[in-house]
Structures are given as structure tokens and as C-alpha cells.
Amino acid sequence: MTTSRGSVGEIAARQDMMALCADAGRDDLEAAVATLEVPAAEDLRPPETGLVMATGRIGGDGRSFNLGEVSVTRAAIRLDGVGTGFAYHLGRDRAKARLAAILDGLWQDPGRRGRVEEALAPVARRIEAARRQAARRTAATRVDFLTLARGED
């Protein structure tokens, strides 16, 4: 299936790359950008921080409720001869949002996509290892409950 902005697989891959940039630290993004040739970047929307309402779900029916407000920073840039890049992440780090937007803009150029993914590969491996470690710690505390019918009814 193809949309006006690309194939569904390409859109999912971009979402994964943008999520990786949101999970990464500013140092990780700086290191990735330092390995790439980056054309001049113009701010379409300077990095700015605001609040969004975080919602949760509770109960058997999954009704949503407002959990509270969280800080989100966003940026939009235009790279000379490449295109535009966008980024959103939790927190107030404006430099991180701008770096992530630059990486998004570079990734959208098919000729640079492989180099961007290669630059972000160490970050992806580190984040995945941290997720696996957290899953192992959580699994170690798991309790399985078994319900037996007592036959007294």
C-alpha cells in the first residue's frame, strides 16, 4: 500500500527512527550528527517547549482519564537541498530536538538514509540492550497465580 507520502513500510521505518531519536540522549545525537555531512539548516520552527496532557486507561472498560501534564519539546528544520525534518520528545532539551529534526531531515533523503541509520546503530543497540535488561528484571519479579476450584459450592 502506498500513501501520498510514501509506502506504509517507509512510514513505519521513519516512525521507528524518530522514536529512536526521542529515546536517545543529546550526546548520542550529537555523536551521530558529527559523523554525517550536514547541509546548512534553517529553523522553520525554532525548538520550543510546551505542555501536553498525558492520558491513561483504567478499569475493565479501558476508559481514559487525564494523568497530568508533561513537557514536550518540538523542532522543525529545513536542510538545504534535502528537505524538512521534524522532532518531538519528552522534556525540555531544545538542542536535542533540533538535532533529532536534522537527523529526520537527512533520513528522508534516500541517498543519505543508510548513513543516518549506520550513525544511529550504536544508540539503537544500547537502547535495545537496556530494554532487554529491564524486561529481565521485571520478569524476575513476576508472580503466577493459580486458582483452584475448591468444590464446596
Radius of gyration: 21 Å
Helix count equals: 4
Task: Assign the structural class, choosing from mainly alpha, mainly beta, alpha/beta, alpha+beta, or little secondary structure.
Answer: alpha+beta
Helix percent reads 40-55%
> What proportion strand?
25-35%
Please describe the biggest sheet, giving its number of strands, its sense, and whether it closes into a barrel. 3 strands, antiparallel
Strand line-up of the largest beta sheet: 3-4-5
Number of domains: 1
Strand segment tally: 5
Uncertain segments of ≥5 residues (pLDDT<50)?
none
Mean pLDDT: 90
Q: How would the global form be characterised?
A: elongated
Distance between the termini: 56 Å
Order of helices and strands: EEHHEEEHH
Explain what the structure shows.
This is Phosphonate C-P lyase system protein PhnG. InterPro entries: Phosphonate_metab_PhnG. The chain has 153 residues and is of the alpha+beta class. The protein has one domain (9-125). The chain contains 4 helices and 5 strands. It has helices at 8-23, 26-34, 94-107, 110-140, and strands at residues 2-3, 6-7, 41-58, 63-79, 83-90. A hairpin with a 4-residue loop joins β3 (41-58) and β4. α2 runs antiparallel to α4. The model has no long low-confidence stretch (mean pLDDT 90).
